[in-house]
Amino acid sequence: MFDGDYSMGRSTQIILSFAVSQVGSQASTRPAGHLGVPVALVCGDDTVDAEVGALMPWAERVITKWAISPFSARNLTPKASQKRIREGAKRALDRLSEMKPLVIEAPIHLEVDLMQPIFADLAADIPGVERVDGRTLAYTGAGMLEATRIWRLIINTSRGESFV
To answer: Where do the DSSP E strands lie in the chain?
Structure first.
């Protein structure tokens, strides 16, 4: 089981739980893997580095910041980050034949925990989405692209907070 934490605005936080082991902060790796696109380079904080190393050891990883809390980090300067990313990209390209896609077997089950019940109220009307409790929604998709589309639709619905 993987839990990923996404902050989507001042009042929307989405906690994703997938019934497979995944890297939460690398949401694009899931649909990319479905399409056969390999993961070659991942840049981010030290926690992402550890997650990616465990799940995708072939991927080149570049740490550009160190997490202090969910809202703060100790960062490299932009120039130092750019240098590290450039060097990591070169290493990844040199090892491109070793890179693999991250493929997740279907069906794909996800749960989304929203910060406000109103967001769950709105997104619960999406076909196939089930209400688990006051703030949590669940969905099981036939494949990663379908599950990703529903996940994005839930996020977009919850972003409409200023219109409610």
So the answer is: 2-7, 13-18, 41-45, 60-69, 72-75, 108-113, 130-131, 136-141
**How many C-beta atoms lie closer than 10 Å to residue 159's C-beta?**
14
Contacts of 13 (CB under 8 A, 6+ apart): 5, 6, 7, 113, 114, 115
Contacts of 27 (CB under 8 A, 6+ apart): 4, 6, 148, 151
What does the alpha-carbon distance between residue 119 and residue 117 come to, in Å, rounded to a whole number? 5
* Measured distance CA(159)–CA(57) in Å, rounded: 34
Q: How confident is the model at residue 3 (pLDDT cuts 50, 70, 90)?
A: very low
Check: CB of residue 21 under 8 Å from CB of residue 108.
Answer: no
Q: Which residues contact 90 (CB under 8 A, 6 or more apart)?
A: none
pTM of the entire predicted model: 0.64
User: How far apart are the C-alpha atoms of 52 and 29, rounded to whole Å?
Assistant: 11
Tokens of 148: 């990703």
Give the dihedral of Cα atoms 138, 143, 148, 150; nearest 10 deg.
Answer: -50
